[in-house]
Design goal:
63 residues, mainly beta, 4 strands
Length: 63
């Protein structure tokens, strides 16, 4: 995973919607207790369906 890496975002509330995006930020450290790493993605063309705190599936793509 790297900054700028393309991805596809599918909100759980709207499974028929798919958005193109990219990796905008990667946390400098992982949470070792949970085994997680925080990654922030940016949607290229957001619309009215997207709201804060909306859960989504993110598929990271090869360039």
């Amino acid at each position: 995973m790297y900054l700028g890496q393309p991805c596809r975002i599918s909100p759980e509330a709207y499974p028929d919607k798919v958005y193109d995006g990219y990796v905008a930020e990667i946390a400098p450290e992982a949470n070792r207790q949970k085994g997680t790493l925080q990654v922030k993605v940016q949607i290229r063309a957001p619309d009215k369906y997207l709201t804060p705190e909306l859960s989504a599936r993110v598929d990271f793509l090869k360039k």
